[in-house]
């Protein structure tokens, strides 16, 4: 910094002195700001450069001190400048070693620029020792406090050494006051520049950290939303969809563009649309979460059942802005529940059969015997025949209940399915000829060996073939086809040309006491299911009204 000369003071050139200091403070501010501005363009974590580059920073501060000394003014062999402003800042921000390095540059510049080395070296030594000692007590303080303590220390050392100890311009207190005030101003300006940079950089760093955290969080949620099999949907107040998760495309078969343009009402099953709309409307009013079951329409037209958890999302004013709906396909679960229900029904029927069959059969036999005796004595009447017919029907039901509910000893043997079918068709041939029905059997071989109970499997064939024959009032053909597949299974397909079964009634076939025939018990198909299941196979029915029914049975073949 420029030195305030006595001549200027004595000649009333105070305005020139002020101008010199302003110029030097401006240059000092520029030198402090330059590395901060350059540093703002360098990507780094804050404090890392300060910790790892103390040496370079202290060298740069020393250069700044050197430049300030070179711009100083001489008065009677003494130089005056504000070189101690960067020294104070270095001690305050980086500690004694960087501060001493910076002070060393300042001392070297001072010794090269003017004489009077003794007071310069002695004053410098006092200041460095004082700064080092005071720093030990203030290093945990804030930078503002450290700057204050260091400047006060400098002020005390300056007053003791310059005007008192060395008797330099002792009669010019205004000169010394101006000098220390401008040194203080240099410290204040430098610290303000550094603190502004630090605070700005911290703000930017915190903002970047928040943005990074937000981006990472968003990426995680997006990763979950875009890779889950559940359907995630976001609705607004107008029940317009703001977001469809990609799983909608996979589960429902629609393209992303089709989903965006499609009205939600067209996606929901018509029977569930009103219920869904009312529930969503109530959620916006009541602000509570609910669980719904509704159906969505697949691109191909079939309905898929979903269980959905609907959760409201509140805005700043505590009102509901959006509703997030997470839906899961429960079609398989529904099927499993139906199978479980069917199994429970079978179990109940089995328990009932054990008691009912025994309780009914004994008095039934007695009643039937007396009616037959009565008919033989008094002659046949239409009422006797009707009673006996109904009693025989009750016997059939009781026998089927017994076969269903009573555990039977099963003898497993190696059985050829083709031979069993031949025997069954031979047994039914007279009735088939009488009804104008022809059996046509095809097979891609003669050997279809399975392990099973011969009579049970034969009973399955009898039940199914009799059902087919009873459905063909006008006669026709029944096609039986035996094939082997690559999975080691034998497929027996029985196709008739009967009246067929409505599609909506097919799922109920196999339920106990449910039959489409006037005098059917509903137990025949159920028994067939039970027998095939016991033989580790499967049975499947498909039908079209007035075109016929196809029954496909699969049983595991014996591996040769």
UniProtKB/TrEMBL annotation:
EC main class here is transferase
- The protein in question is named histidine kinase
Report the locations given in the UniProt record.
Cell membrane
Q: How does it sit in the membrane?
A: Multi-pass membrane protein
Q: Which residues cross the membrane?
A: 21-42, 54-73, 85-111, 117-137, 149-169, 175-200
Q: What are the entry keywords?
A: ATP-binding, Cell membrane, Kinase, Membrane, Nucleotide-binding, Phosphoprotein, Transferase, Transmembrane, Transmembrane helix, Two-component regulatory system
MF terms from GO for this chain are: ATP binding
- Catalytic activity line of the entry: ATP + protein L-histidine = ADP + protein N-phospho-L-histidine
Ranges for domain PAS: 217-287
Its main subcellular localisation, reduced to a broad class, is: membrane
Chain ranges of the Histidine kinase domain: 355-559
Domain PAC as annotated: residue spans: 290-342
EC number(s)?
Answer: 2.7.13.3
* Annotated Pfam families: 5TM-5TMR_LYT, HATPase_c, HisKA, PAS_3
InterPro entries per record: HATPase_C_sf (IPR036890), HATPase_dom (IPR003594), His_kinase_dom (IPR005467), HisK_dim/P_dom (IPR003661), HisK_dim/P_sf (IPR036097), PAC (IPR001610), PAS (IPR000014), PAS-assoc_C (IPR000700)
Stored PROSITE patterns: HIS_KIN, PAC, PAS
């Amino acid at each position: 910094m420029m030195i305030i000369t006595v001549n200027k003071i004595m000649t009333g050139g105070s305005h020139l002195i002020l101008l010199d200091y302003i110029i030097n403070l401006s240059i000092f501010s520029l030198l402090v700001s330059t590395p901060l501005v350059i540093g703002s363009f360098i990507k780094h974590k804050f404090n890392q450069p300060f910790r790892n580059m103390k040496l370079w920073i202290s060298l740069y501060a020393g250069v700044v001190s050197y430049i300030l000394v070179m711009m100083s003014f001489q008065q009677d062999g003494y130089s005056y400048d504000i070189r101690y402003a960067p020294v104070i800042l270095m001690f305050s921000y980086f500690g004694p070693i960087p501060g001493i390095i910076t002070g060393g540059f300042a001392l070297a510049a001072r010794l090269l620029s003017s004489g009077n080395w003794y007071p310069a070296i002695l004053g410098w030594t006092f200041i460095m020792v004082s700064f080092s000692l005071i720093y030990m007590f203030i290093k945990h303080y804030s930078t503002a406090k450290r700057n204050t303590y260091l400047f006060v220390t400098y002020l005390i050392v300056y007053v003791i050494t310059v005007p008192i100890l060395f008797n330099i311009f002792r009669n010019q207190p205004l000169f010394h006051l101006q000098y220390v005030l401008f040194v203080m101003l240099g410290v204040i300006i430098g610290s303000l520049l550094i603190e502004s940079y630090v605070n700005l950089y911290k703000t930017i760093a915190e903002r970047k950290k928040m943005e990074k955290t937000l981006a990472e969080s968003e990426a995680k949620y997006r990763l979950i939303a875009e890779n889950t099999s559940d359907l995630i949907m976001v609705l607004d107040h107008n029940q317009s969809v703001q977001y469809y998760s990609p799983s909608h495309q996979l589960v429902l078969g629609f393209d992303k563009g089709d989903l965006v343009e499609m009205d939600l009402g067209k996606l929901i099953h018509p029977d569930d649309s009103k219920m869904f709309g009312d529930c969503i409307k109530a959620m916006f009013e009541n602000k509570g979460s609910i669980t719904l079951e509704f159906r969505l329409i697949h691109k191909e037209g079939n309905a898929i059942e979903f269980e959905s958890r609907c959760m409201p999302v509140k805005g700043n004013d505590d009102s509901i802005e959006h509703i997030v709906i997470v839906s899961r396909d429960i079609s398989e679960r529904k099927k499993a529940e139906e199978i479980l229900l069917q199994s429970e029904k079978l179990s109940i029927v089995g328990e009932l059969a054990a008691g009912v069959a025994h309780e009914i059969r004994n008095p039934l036999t007695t009643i039937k015997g007396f009616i037959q005796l009565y008919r033989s004595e008094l002659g046949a009447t239409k009422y006797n025949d009707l009673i006996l017919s109904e009693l025989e029907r009750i016997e059939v039901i009781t026998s089927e209940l017994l076969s269903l509910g009573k555990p039977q000893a099963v003898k497993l043997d190696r059985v050829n399915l083709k031979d069993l079918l031949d025997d069954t068709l031979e047994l039914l041939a007279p009735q088939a000829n009488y009804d104008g029905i022809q059996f046509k059997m095809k097979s891609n071989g003669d050997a279809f060996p399975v392990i099973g109970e011969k009579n049970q499997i034969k009973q399955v064939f009898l039940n199914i073939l009799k059902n087919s024959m009873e459905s063909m009032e006008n006669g026709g053909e029944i096609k039986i086809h035996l094939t082997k597949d690559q999975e080691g299974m034998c497929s027996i397909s029985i196709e008739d040309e009967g009246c067929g079964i409505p599609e909506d009634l097919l799922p109920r076939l196999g339920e106990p006491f449910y039959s489409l025939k006037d005098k059917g018990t509903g137990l025949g198909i159920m028994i067939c299911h039970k027998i095939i299941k016991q033989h580790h196979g499967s049975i499947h029915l498909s039908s079209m009204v007035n075109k016929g029914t196809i029954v496909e049975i699969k049983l595991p073949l014996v591996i040769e």
